């Protein structure tokens, strides 16, 4: 029994050694000897073992590649075994990256060296670059809590004075269009760490959020964290989805920054021709109905489309809009009328369909109205499928 136990123990040790030897692939890198995982001596996996890098020609371009490979941003390149001397082999020498490489081993280098471990290279990285921003905790990449990088760490933005111009700057900086819906009261959840900006007041033309007039945090809590939902397309734009080529598919229309579909009631070849003309695909088309190219998602934006064939844009054809124009500005008027704070808009009968008459459509508030009925709107008695509008209000 004792011999059997020793055999099992030796087998386990052997397997552990094997697994350690192949835990990393050639070209993997790690940082060793720093005060955090953001800095240290650069070590490279070669042949299943970790080795170091000689600091000959070592500079910020090389540090940039190292930090990027690890998912960080670069701060500085360090030499002369700043983070202590390694052991084992020196696997890279004369490294000369241009800075765009995905992996350190893709950079120009030599493997025959004349270095000692007193020349081991190191780097210092940061989680992010000061002034960069990101959106966190949204359902899509184009929405979420706004977080700003300062001194290598992420922090949040207080929603005091937060508005649509600030949202527009955030969306533009991130490449998600040029407009957005602003969110407040930690709509996308509360952040952690510092609240870096408050009283943000952008003009809408700034390239970076940190260029906007702002204060450092004074009296905010994370329950006031700001967020945005960016508008990812231009109102009136069309696209074809689900076809076997770019000349066919389900017709989708952009309205208020979101893609939606078109109901096939009254849909015919004349309407299809207008779609094709708008997309630059000729002046005639064949209409398909009953979700021929698959079911869409999101709102159904147009119904009873009746083009005469001369229109340049589908949205110019006769039709019925449903809750398509309902947005946070309209929701804000509702909430103010009820004695609450800011509001979030919901469509597509988010809070269930009402059985009574539909009395308002195409509601377009400018945000200053004291009553919803003061907003521009149409009186309608038909809207299908159910698209009753709703709001969620914040307490003052």
From TrEMBL:
Coiled coil: none annotated. Keywords: Disulfide bond, Glycoprotein, Membrane, Repeat, Secreted, Signal, Transmembrane, Transmembrane helix. Residues 29-126, 133-231, 238-336, 333-394 form the SRCR domain. It is a single-pass membrane protein. It comes from the Eukaryota. It is found in: Membrane; Secreted. InterPro entries: SRCR (IPR001190), SRCR-like_dom_sf (IPR036772). Disulfide bonds join 97-107, 202-212, 307-317, 365-375. Residues 1-23 form the signal peptide. SMART domains: SR. PANTHER family: EGG PEPTIDE SPERACT RECEPTOR (PTHR19331:SF465), SCAVENGER RECEPTOR DOMAIN-CONTAINING (PTHR19331). This is SRCR domain-containing protein.
């Amino acid at each position: 029994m004792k011999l059997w136990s020793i055999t099992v123990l030796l087998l386990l040790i052997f397997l552990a050694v094997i697994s350690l030897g192949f835990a990393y692939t050639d070209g993997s890198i790690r940082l060793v000897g720093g005060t955090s995982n953001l800095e240290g001596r650069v070590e490279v996996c070669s042949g299943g073992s970790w080795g170091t890098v000689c600091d000959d020609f070592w500079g910020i371009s090389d540090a940039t590649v190292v930090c990027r490979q690890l998912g960080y941003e670069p701060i500085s390149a360090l030499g002369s075994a700043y983070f202590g001397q390694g052991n084992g082999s020196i696997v890279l020498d004369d490294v000369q990256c241009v800075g765009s490489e995905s992996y350190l081993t893709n950079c120009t280098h030599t493997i025959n060296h004349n270095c000692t471990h007193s020349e081991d290279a190191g780097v210092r990285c940061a989680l992010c670059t000061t002034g960069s921003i990101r959106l966190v905790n949204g359902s899509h990449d184009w929405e979420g809590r706004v977080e700003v990088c300062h001194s290598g760490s992420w922090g949040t933005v207080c929603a005091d004075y937060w508005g649509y111009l600030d949202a527009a700057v955030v969306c533009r900086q991130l490449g998600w269009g040029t407009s957005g819906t602003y969110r407040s009261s930690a709509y996308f959840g509360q952040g952690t760490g510092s609240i870096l900006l408050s009283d943000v007041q952008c003009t809408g033309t700034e390239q970076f959020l940190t260029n906007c007039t702002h204060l450092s945090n004074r009296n905010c809590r994370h329950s006031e964290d700001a967020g945005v939902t960016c508008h990812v397309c231009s109102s009136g734009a069309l696209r074809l989805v689900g076809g076997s080529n770019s000349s066919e598919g389900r017709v989708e229309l952009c309205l208020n920054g979101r893609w939606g579909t078109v109901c096939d009631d009254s849909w015919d070849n004349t309407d299809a021709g207008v779609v094709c003309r708008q997309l630059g695909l000729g002046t005639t088309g064949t209409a398909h109905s009953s979700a021929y190219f698959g079911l869409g998602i999101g709102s159904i934006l147009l119904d009873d489309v009746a083009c005469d064939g001369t229109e340049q844009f589908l949205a110019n054809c006769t039709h019925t809009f449903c809750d398509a124009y309902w947005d946070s500005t309209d929701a804000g008027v509702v909430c103010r009328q009820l004695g609450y704070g800011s509001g979030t808009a919901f469509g597509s009968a988010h809070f269930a369909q009402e059985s009574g008459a539909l009395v308002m459509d195409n509601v377009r508030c400018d945000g200053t109205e004291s009553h919803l009925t003061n907003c521009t709107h149409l009186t309608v008695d038909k809207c299908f499928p159910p698209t009753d509008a709703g709001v969620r209000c914040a307490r003052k």
